[in-house]
Amino acid sequence: MKSKNYKSISDESSKVFDKLSGEWWDENGSFKALHSFNLIRIEYIKNNFKKSLSDLSILDVGCGGGILCEPLSRLGAKVTGIDSNEKAIKVAKEHAKMKNLKINYFNTELSLIEESSFDIITCMEVLEHVENVSKIISISKNILKKNGVFFGSTINKTLSSYLFAIFAAENIFQIVPRGTHTWKKFLKPNYLKKKFLQNDFNDFQVQGVKYNPFKNSWSYSDKTFINYLFFAEKL
What we know:
The chain is α/β, with parallel strands linked by helices. It has a single domain, classed as 3-Layer(aba) Sandwich (Rossmann fold). Helices cover 34% and strands 25% of the residues. The chain is built from seven helices and eight strands. The protein has helices at residues 11-19, 32-49, 69-74, 86-98, 133-143, 159-172, 189-198; strands at residues 57-61, 78-83, 104-107, 118-124, 144-155, 201-212, 217-221, 227-234. An eight-stranded mixed beta sheet has the order 3-2-1-4-5-8-6-7. It is globular and about 45 Å long.
């Protein structure tokens, strides 16, 4: 893989994650909610891929410090994690080494991955930070195997998401640092569905999830007003 050519993540988001680089593996720190989200994210992938993840090739886009990569690796998958944030990748490499996990981490952009073929691409809590969602989807299609699956999670663009995912999360519960999210970058499920279908994906499915800040726990929901998981299979 090549190193870098442009940043898909906005400069504002890059600055936020630079400041948080030392907290990726602090389960009581700024990524506390993300650590608890891992349980339901892994369950969602396992339930909807319908095959054992053992020996499958998985690419985690925007892997950060490796919070999702490590449990996927423990399930036997061949995991590659990429992130444009150099500090996050350094943390991910050091933590994987400490845990004796073989994960390939690269400080690079999705657009620079060449001649790769993956069974699964994960892109969790990332799309609401990128500059060009369509480009992420288009490139993913090209490097997924036939019948490969793209799994993601993001935040809906609603009044509820502004009130809870930004105002309450940043100012009241302080789940995430101020400036982590920008409401105008949030994504409606129907918008994403359209983009995936335009890029020869099918079977786009959405699952609402909700967070309890008092218990620091996630559960499935029949509502997608705020957070939601989704997957799309490549034709």
